[in-house]
Design the sequence.
């Protein structure tokens, strides 16, 4: 008896009509990417996807991180005949520990002489006759025992939830502003989960922020890569920009002006690499710079859409996701970030665009941005 994994993809992919093939192809490619390095076999049987490997646990661990997969089922492959189906269904039920069950059959192999309703009935009756303490519950069974009659027959009742979303790489690209904090890795994960390809930018204020702060961001990018298969991180030297702002601008406007620079640099990099949008981990009201006025003023310099998937999320919920996706432990490591070092004592929470534009106009904006982009480091393979 061979155990395999049946891969069920998100129902949204079914709704894609003529584009369905494109999404399926990408999903398959992404699965291949995460399965690199282990021996496995991919089996297509009339629209069903099965994956076989000696190491089923590792296979599942990896497939659980692939966006677009809704469910993974551990199936047993048997020869197609009723005796085999009976005994395997009984084993499956006993092993499950469930008290109530329901049998569901799908007969894709029309050469098999008994129709699916009949098979379900026969197997149900057999299970009741040959076991004790089980009952049928068609509405809310503890276990659904599925029988797929194809060339071979596949039986399963064990289902593992996949992470859902859309296949990575099917919905354009975004440049994520990735800090060492809790929010931005979650924001990146959420964009990636909807199929958007991620690149990341980190603003590094050497020597005010240490190598360790940079390593922390690299580590976060590496964790995200576990979901995306590949990732690029641009590390931009930000000290000159911050020093110029400190030197020439009002203290209470430092943060907002700095955020406008972050946005300008991000757009410049996005433009250079044909990335259509920018994403941040901002959430309305969370800190002084994330007021509606603050967001409006920093958004003003963007030349492309800026996505903020966490804008309406509470911090507690963001933290929950961060734990679930595995970035939390790294995010809470206590290394300084560039914003905490340059925070004004009383930052403006309601900046006025015209005033900010006037205040920053004394700076050589274009050359500061260009210079930062020219000096950035690129990390890809080593992540
Ligand atoms: P996070 O937890 O993501 O750091 P935060 O709550 O600390 O967010 P801010 O520090 O105000 O909030 O940053 C808001 C957003 O700006 C971040 O989510 C991130 O997208 C971006 N950002 C902030 N600092 C940096 C940085 N040093 N490099 C890259 N992006 C940054
Ligand atoms: Mg931060």
Sequence:
């Amino acid at each position: 008896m061979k155990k395999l994994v049946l891969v069920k993809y998100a129902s949204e992919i079914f709704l894609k009509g003529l584009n369905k093939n494109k999404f399926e192809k990408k999903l398959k490619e992404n699965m291949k990417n995460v399965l690199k390095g282990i021996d496995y076999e991919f089996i297509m049987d009339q629209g069903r996807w099965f994956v076989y490997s000696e190491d089923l646990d590792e296979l599942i661990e990896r497939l659980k991180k692939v966006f677009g997969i809704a469910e993974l089922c551990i199936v047993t492959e048997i020869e197609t005949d009723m005796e085999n189906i009976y005994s395997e269904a009984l084993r499956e039920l006993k092993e499950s520990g469930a008290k109530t069950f329901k049998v569901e059959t799908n007969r894709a192999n029309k050469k098999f002489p008994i129709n699916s309703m009949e098979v379900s009935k026969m197997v149900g009756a057999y299970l009741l006759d040959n076991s004790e303490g089980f009952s049928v519950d068609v509405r809310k069974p503890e276990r659904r025992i599925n029988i797929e009659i194809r060339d071979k027959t596949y039986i399963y009742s064990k289902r593992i939830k996949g992470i859902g979303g859309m296949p990575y790489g099917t919905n354009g690209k975004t440049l994520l502003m990735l800090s060492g904090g809790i929010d931005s890795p979650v924001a990146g994960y959420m964009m990636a989960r909807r199929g958007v390809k991620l690149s990341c930018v980190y603003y590094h204020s050497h020597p005010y922020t240490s190598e360790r702060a940079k390593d922390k961001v690299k580590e976060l990018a590496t964790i995200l890569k576990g979901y995306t298969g590949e990732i690029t991180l641009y590390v931009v030297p930000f000290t000159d920009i911050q020093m110029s702002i400190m030197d020439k601008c009002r203290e209470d406007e430092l943060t907002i002006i700095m955020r406008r620079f972050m946005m300008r640099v991000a757009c410049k990099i996005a433009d250079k690499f044909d990335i259509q949008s920018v994403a941040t981990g901002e959430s309305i009201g969370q800190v002084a710079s994330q007021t509606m006025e603050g967001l409006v003023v920093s958004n003003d310099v963007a030349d492309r859409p800026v996505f903020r998937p966490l804008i309406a999320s509470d911090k507690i919920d963001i933290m929950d996701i961060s734990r679930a996706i595995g970035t939390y432990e790294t995010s809470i490591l206590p290394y300084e970030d560039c914003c905490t070092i340059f925070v004004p004592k009383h930052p403006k929470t309601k900046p006025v665009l015209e005033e900010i534009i006037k205040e920053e106009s004394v700076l050589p904006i274009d050359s500061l941005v260009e210079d930062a982009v020219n000096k950035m480091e690129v990390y890809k393979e080593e992540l």
About this structure: The chain has two domains: 2-161, 173-379. The mean pLDDT is 94. The domain at 173-379 is CATH 3.40.50.620 (Rossmann fold).
